[in-house]
Amino acid sequence: MKRRLLTCFLTLMALAAVISGADVYSQSPLFISTGSPVTVGEGSGHLVLADINRDGHLDLVSQHLQRHMVAVQLGDGTGRFTAAPGSPITLDYSPGDIEVGDVNKDGLLDLGVTSSERDAVDIFLGQGSGRFNPAPGSPFLVSPSPEFNTHGLQFVDINEDGKLDIITTSNTRNSFSTLLGNGRGGFSQGPTSTFPAREGRYAFAFGDLDADGHLDAAISNGGTELLAESARVVVLRGNGKGAFENISETPVPAGPRYAALGDINGDGRPDIVLTHGSDQLSVVLNKGGGRFAPASPFDLETTVFAVAVADVNRDKKNDLVVAAVESVIVLLNSASGFAPAPGSPFNAGPGAFHLTTGDINKDGKLDVAASSFGGRNVTVLLGR
Fold first, then answer.
1. What is the mean pLDDT of residues 309-329?
2. Residue 70: which residues within 8 A CB-CB, separation 6 or more?
């Protein structure tokens, strides 16, 4: 019923735009392809845009699960990229996730890589040229678990000591683990937090959800359509020392895949955006104090994976950018709800399961990079 109501709502919104002379479908596309592919190698997955070599331009780091490598491409500020010195970084395992951050406080971005074959994190220290060298003591063991699965990775200051720490997440355990940073590139095991176990894949997001200044966690899971009533977002409140406690559970549609945080309704509180295995996307609104409203899903009529929350058209409202296997869907936010951006969906390479956003060509407009698990190139879409 909710889906039908929201579908009608979006339809009415689009009709109103036509009547007012602002038909989004008749406008020029909001994004254009660079025209020249960014060749990073076969099977790209997780992507990061960051200034690796400190030249003021965004560079591109890509994870390659089956190729056992991480590729680093240096950007020139126009949308073009070239391989960095020492790229690709060859690994003796399948990388589960990647993240960048200054873990040793030298002003250079460093690289973290999780393994799909062991519960550990490799740290590579940035040299400022685009090259990375293994950190002393790396890899850092998270747990002795022999489970084979992809581990997620985030760099955050979980215990608020001014040093970056590590959170690792797993799709097979009802817990997430921490490594506490010493500010010199070294890490030691920190607290492990558990949450109510449910069937299916977990989707994780971390941020200050209750406005108390501490990092919190949102974990959504709940198996298949047959177990739809069991799907929940569990919110854990962080205490600023690395530990978390359960404060709320909110029902969501079945089969959550990916989660992202962002203020959707302009009230200053981060909301939770989820994609689902049933081709759905849903928004869980933050009501304050750790309380959330049940999600209202809508069907994108195609398989969707990663989602990013960002203001793509510079109207001071957060929009949604969704990876959709062979395309990128952009949904613009307005007082009336979400509607496809002009030109959406935008073509991407095969296996566009992940994406990231940033101003790649330094024109003040948000751009998008989308992975290609089934190809060799990353798709770069430049904002207009």
1. 97
2. 61, 62, 63, 64, 88, 89, 91, 95, 98, 111, 113
